[in-house]
Each structure stands twice: as structure tokens, then as C-alpha cells.
């Protein structure tokens, strides 16, 4: 049973692509967009994060911090970010604790990989409440960025 609009977002602490600790609580007082993505260096994940990179000023203007989360290690995420010029923090959920808390794990993904994060998007308001939740079962689909931006506009 996944998170629903109106639920309190589960707090977490993860290591980012710079090997620094990042806590969701650090962003209290700011809108947050959490983007779970299956795997670094894959086509759709690259496209998704490139779109965010290219529209970062829009999210900044909506007083939102975008955080990308995958099960990749911080070392992989560092290289992925460097190669693509991403301008948002990428967080390693290597132990899958946050993906489990947000209920966004595939049982089995491609190539029989188990427990990979589903492509998902959550908008969390300044007080930590989920205002938008989208969990995609098809990894080839992208989140509805127009709805995400609409939700952020309504929060401001």
C-alpha cells in the first residue's frame, strides 16, 4: 500500500553523489520533488534527469528542491551526474530502505534484477505532507512533469 496525497512523507537520510549525508528533514520549509529512478546510465532515466536539469530554473522559481533517488551506489551516481551535467542531488538508496518506505520497489526488474526502484514522483510540501504521488509500473514511462509543476504552483 503506497503513499497517498495527504500522508506524512517518511523521513530519510541518504548519501548523495558527493558522499555527503542528506536528510529529508533538512528541506523542511521548502517544497521537495522526490524522483525515484530505476538505474543510472539507462536511456529513460537519463532522459528524465536531463529534462529536470534543463528545467531546473522552473523548479527553483517554484521554491522546490528536486532530489533524484536510485539504488545505485554513490560512486555510480557521482559519475552519472558528472557525465550528464546534472544540477540536482542524486541520492543513493543502495540498501533500499527509502524505496521500501515509499513502497516503490519492483519485485523483479529486467534481467532478473530484484528490488529496483520504480520510476516514481512525489511532491512534498513545506510541512512534509505528500501533495502529489505517482508510481509508474512501466519503467519506460516518465512522470507527469506538467502535473508536478501544477502541484508546486498551487503550493505557492
Provide an overview of this structure.
The structure is a single chain. The protein is an alpha/beta fold and 156 residues long. The chain has a single domain, classed as Glutaredoxin (3-Layer(aba) Sandwich). Helices cover 29% and strands 22% of the residues. It is built from five helices and seven strands, in the order E-E-E-H-H-E-H-E-H-E-E-H. A seven-stranded mixed beta sheet has the order 2-1-5-4-3-6-7. The protein starts with 12 loop residues before the first strand and ends with a helix. 35% of the residues are buried. The mean pLDDT is 94.
Secondary-structure map with pairings?
Blueprint: E1 13-16, E2 21-23, E3 31-36, H1 43-54, H2 56-61, E4 64-70, H3 74-84, E5 90-92, H4 97-101, E6 120-124, E7 130-135, H5 145-155
Parallel strand pairs: 3-4, 4-5
Antiparallel strand pairs: 1-2, 1-5, 3-6, 6-7
How would you concisely characterize the structure shown here?
This protein has five helices and seven strands. The longest helix has 12 residues, at 43-54. With 156 residues, it is α/β, with parallel strands linked by helices.
What is the terminal-to-terminal distance?
Answer: 29 Å
Look at the structure and give the mean pLDDT: 94
The CATH topology is what?
Glutaredoxin
CATH architecture, by name, is 3-Layer(aba) Sandwich
Q: Helicity range of the residues?
A: 25-40%
Q: How would you sum up the global shape? A: globular
How many separate structural domains?
Answer: 1
Strand order of the largest sheet: 2-1-5-4-3-6-7
Amino acid at each position: 500500500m503506497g503513499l497517498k496525497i495527504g500522508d506524512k512523507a517518511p523521513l530519510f537520510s541518504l548519501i548523495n553523489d558527493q558522499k555527503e549525508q542528506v536528510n529529508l528533514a533538512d528541506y523542511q520549509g521548502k517544497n521537495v520533488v522526490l524522483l525515484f529512478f530505476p538505474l543510472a546510465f539507462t536511456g529513460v532515466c537519463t532522459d528524465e534527469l536531463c529534462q529536470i536539469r534543463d528545467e531546473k530554473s522552473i523548479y527553483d522559481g517554484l521554491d522546490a528542491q528536486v532530489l533524484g533517488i536510485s539504488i545505485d551506489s554513490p560512486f555510480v551516481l557521482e559519475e552519472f551526474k558528472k557525465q550528464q551535467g546534472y544540477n540536482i542531488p542524486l541520492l543513493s538508496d543502495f540498501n533500499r530502505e527509502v524505496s521500501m518506505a515509499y513502497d516503490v520497489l519492483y519485485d523483479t526488474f529486467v534481467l532478473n534484477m530484484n528490488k529496483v526502484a520504480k520510476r516514481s514522483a512525489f511532491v512534498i510540501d513545506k510541512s512534509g505532507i505528500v501533495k502529489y504521488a505517482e508510481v509508474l509500473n512501466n519503467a519506460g514511462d516518465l512522470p507527469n512533469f506538467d502535473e508536478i509543476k501544477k502541484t508546486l504552483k498551487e503550493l505557492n
